[in-house]
Design a protein that fits this description.
Layout: H1 3-13, H2 17-20, E1 29-32, H3 39-47, E2 51-55, E3 61-64, H4 65-70, E4 78-79, H5 80-86, E5 92-98, E6 106-118, E7 122-131, E8 140-145, H6 152-175, H7 186-203, H8 216-239, H9 244-256
Parallel strand pairs: 1-2
Antiparallel strand pairs: 2-8, 3-4, 3-6, 5-6, 6-7, 7-8
Length: 257
């Protein structure tokens, strides 16, 4: 079973009600990078009644509506990069989005978009996007969105959420030991993953004495300080009890003996 097959099986079995309760399927969008640009995955998403916003490989086949009506469905597909290169009549527009980070700078993207047919899937909105100030030939991203009502700006904002997922995985690997496991049992790996996720959620949940601001290492340092102070507070509390000092001395003697 390939990774893509596992993703399809996961999507088919996923019960969103357990995560978000009552919902409309049309409100769910699956975000992926071009590594998961696969017609079977995309169709699995559509079969659940959801939408997808996925980066396309430059070699993926596209057809304009006019060409799709006139040509056989099995051939004469244009590569995604060639499609946008040849469709110079598709107007460019500038989309401005607030960048992530404390300074909240704005980024301008040069965008072209059109409704096309995606090979093996159906009608989508295809977006060709690149940072406006980059030099010619810079990073260009091709994005497919199955929701034809979504605007180019909405598609770009939604796709940028995927980067937060990448940052999340980077943080849990660097600071919470996500990859520090050596076991042959899958159930042990699963438990380890759940514990790491729980630790991350707790660090982001505005704990007393920790707060919401700061990086994960800063929050971990604050948690360690809270635990150390709590231990000292417990010792002081025990000493203030009747006979507490004598009892504490006896415990120390038994440990040192």
């Amino acid at each position: 079973m390939t990774e893509h097959d596992r993703v399809i099986a996961y999507l088919n079995d996923l019960n969103m009600y357990e995560y978000i309760g009552l919902h409309n399927n049309e409100d769910i969008a699956v975000l992926t990078d071009s590594g998961y640009d696969n017609k079977k995955i995309q169709n699995a998403v559509l079969n659940r009644g959801w939408h997808f916003i996925m980066a396309l490989k430059s070699s993926r086949g596209l057809k304009s509506e006019a060409k799709y009506a006139k040509t056989p469905k099995s051939r004469e597909w244009d590569r995604t990069d060639c499609f946008f290169r040849n469709k110079r009549k598709v107007a460019r527009e500038t989309v401005r989005i607030l960048a992530d980070g404390p300074k909240r700078k704005r980024k301008d993207f040069r965008v072209r978009h059109t409704e096309v047919f995606l090979k093996g899937v159906g009608k989508i909105t295809a977006v060709c996007s690149e940072i406006k100030k980059k030099k010619r030939g810079g990073c260009r991203k091709y994005i497919a969105c199955s929701d034809l009502k979504a605007s180019p700006r909405q598609i770009l904002i939604a796709y940028r959420f995927r980067w937060k997922i990448e940052i999340f995985h980077k943080n849990v690997k660097m600071h919470l030991g996500f990859g520090d496991i050596a076991t042959k049992s899958f159930s042990s790996v699963e438990s380890h993953v759940y514990l790491v996720y729980c630790a991350y959620i707790l660090l982001q949940s505005d704990l007393p004495g920790v707060g919401k601001d700061g990086t994960i290492p800063v929050k971990q340092h604050k948690v360690a300080g809270v635990l150390a102070n709590r231990k000292n507070a417990c010792i002081i509390h025990d000493l203030t009890k009747i006979g507490g000092a004598e009892r504490y001395k006896n415990e120390l003697k038994s440990v040192l003996a």
